[in-house]
Amino acid sequence: MWKGSLLYAVIYCILFVGHIIAAAKELDLLFRIIATLVTLMTMVVGLSTHLLCGLFKEDNGIIVGRYACLPLSAVLGWAYAGMEYSSLILIWVIVAVFIQLLSERGLINYIMHDGLDGRFSSSHQ
């Protein structure tokens, strides 16, 4: 679980530093691209960590996302609110938690589905 999560964190940090550098050098298009990637990575943190952990044959990457989505989405909301406290922060957190719950439910249904191993369940024979 930790190799995939660490890879997610490294990618996220590189993009975060990249967006600061792009903003400082007034590279608006690059800044917007990186900010969009950071936003997407934040909103689908559970799915991202699950997929990255899968690269290393690790389990439970989704659990990391479950806990990481709260602080990451709160900080993202704070950034989109102009770095001031606003109700917009709560909206970002709620949306991120909702996406996380949908991701978890989808992955659980996908992983636990009877037909994924190529065999039919007893009701299909």
What does this structure look like?
It is a single chain. The chain is mostly helical and 125 residues long. The protein contains 5 helices and no strands. It has one domain. Helix 1 packs antiparallel against helix 2 and helix 4 packs antiparallel against helix 5. The radius of gyration is 18 Å and the shape is globular. The C terminus is likely disordered.
What is this entry, summarized?
The protein is mostly helical. Helix content is 77%, strand content 0%. The protein has one domain.
Largest sheet: none
Using the alpha-carbon principal axes, give the shape.
globular
Strand/helix succession: HHHHH
Low-confidence stretches: 115-125
What is the number of domains? 1
The whole-angstrom Rg is 18 Å
How many strands in all? 0
Helix content: over 70%
Report, as a whole number of angstroms, the end-to-end distance: 37 Å
What does the average pLDDT come to?
85
Assess the beta-strand content as a share of residues: under 5%
Structural class: mainly alpha
Figure out the total of helices.
Answer: 5
